[in-house]
Amino acid sequence: MILTKSELMALLAMSFALFMDGIDANIVSLALPSLAEYFDTDTNTVAWVTITYFMMVAGLMLTFGRIASSGHIKKMYLAGFAIFTASSVVCGMSEDLGLLIAARCVQGVGAAILAAVAPMICVKFISPSNLGLAFSALILSGALGFGCGPGVGGLILDTLSWHWVFYINIPLGFLAIFLASKGIPKDCVTDSSRIDYKGSVLIFVAVVSGIYVLEMFSRDGQGMICLVMGMVMVMAMIALVIVEKRSGSPIIRPALFKGWKFNISVACYLLLNLAYMGISYVIPFYIMKELSISYSMAGLILLMPYAITVLLSLPMGRYCDVHGRTKVAILTTVLLTMMSVGYYLITPEMGWVPLIPIGIIMGVLWGICGASLTSLIVDLAPAEERNIASTLTNFIYYTGGAVGTALFASLVAFGSGAPGVSLEILTPAEFMSGYSFTMLCAMIISILTVVMICTVVSGMKKKADSSSE
Question: Looking at the domain assignment, is residue 295 inside a domain?
Answer without folding.
Answer: yes
